[in-house]
Amino acid sequence: MPDSGPQRSPFKLKHRKTTLIHYGRWLPSSSAAYDSFFSQLTSHVSNRRSRASTHTPAVAAFARAINDPSDPEPKMIDLFNQIFLQAASPNNTVITDFESLLHHLDIIVVQPPGFIVPMDTEGNPIGQPVGVPIYIIFDLLSNTAAAYDLFRRPAFNITMKDLLNSWAAYLRTPDSSKTLTDSAGGWFSEMGLAALEDDDRGKFNSTYVCPNPQQTNRGYASWDEFFTREILADARPMVSSDGPAIDASIVVSACESTVFGIQRDVQLHDQFWLKGQKYSLYDMLDRDTFGGSLAKDFIGGTAYQAFLSPADYHRWRSPVAGKIVKAVVVPGTYYAVLPDAGAEEDDPDLEPGSPYGAIIRSQLWLTQAATRALIYIDNPKVGLVCFIGVGMVEVSTCALAVRTGQQVNRVDELGMFHFGGSSHLLLFGPQAKLTFCDDIVDPNTGEVKVNTHIKVLSLLAQAS
Hints:
Blueprint: E1 12-13, H1 31-51, H2 57-66, H3 76-87, H4 98-108, E2 114-116, E3 128-130, H5 133-142, H6 145-150, H7 154-170, H8 190-196, H9 204-207, H10 223-227, H11 244-248, E4 250-252, E5 257-264, H12 281-284, E6 302-308, E7 315-317, E8 322-330, H13 358-361, H14 363-369, E9 371-379, E10 383-391, E11 397-400, E12 407-408, E13 413-418, E14 422-428, E15 434-436, E16 447-448, E17 453-454, E18 459-463
Parallel strand pairs: 1-16
Antiparallel strand pairs: 2-3, 4-18, 5-6, 5-17, 6-14, 7-13, 8-9, 8-12, 9-10, 10-14, 11-13, 15-18
Helix pairs in contact: 1-4, 2-4, 2-7
């Protein structure tokens, strides 16, 4: 039975909508991991500052843009100074001013993402991936009123994109493969492989295309090549049916991802059903700038959202067969969040009121604010479907692999994310009467199984 209350969704939730176990593995899941990450980073910062007084070229350019005297009021540097005041707390003792932030960025933008191995309270090693290090240092800063003003400003996002593009260029170099090792802290160490193979993803060499499986780094020439690795066809066989009519009605998972939520009866201008977050087809689809009147085709329809962790496969596959009606990338924000009062009472990882993780709790709002890819697919049986790839924080690059007018089969690649974790949505029109598979919605209780990991190309739903 549906929940009572103002929400229109008929689904019950196994967890609160703002809750993801370990915050989708974007954030270290223990204080020991946080301490280890910042301890290592701060040590590198101290060593670098003792040897060099200048910033890396990309960070120096970022600093000049933020300090631009022609910047309109309130100036970006003034807002940054307010951010550090508002974020000042026992939780934020490392990055307390803009110059300190710059020196930490100096280290990150010339290093690949790493894998840390701190000790728990009993002295046992615990492996923790750090796929999005810039996000971790921006995490507390983002959850402030001043950051809400600054991080949504177009000028800030332009200069932030320039900085991220510089890091992206580094992540395509051979030097960026240096964390693809089997030593402690390497992605192919025992703990690193355990994280990459978690959630029943499968043994790495049997799941992904490896240029040279016998090499420690599996033959990946760069971090980006490792991150955007292709998956083996027999590791993720596409679900199908012997009956062509039934087969045409099947929708498969477009991404390897973790269930975040489902809502029925979405509206052109709407409000999310928790925490007052806006859920607007009009804004999510870029005010129809590219879609014409396409947003109206989804009024009264269904939205399915799922979240990719840094360890997931980051290419997108078509959930249905059909014609690409539109395929565009919409520029947006990178680190903007809806400031909140912190983690909720039922948060499985953080103490109530903890300021960490606001960007994950802003997942729903980010579907209309963050950089995103919009791919509209017209299917004769299911109707118009829109895949929305939401690029978040470092994951600012949404790379399209299809073009308007192209015919795609269910399984064909639509595009990919680069450099971290991300989220995606599938929008369906009201004519698509969807029955979600039992792995996603409990057939007896109607509960959405939030936090369930779903493999790409596995059965998602069937339209009738």
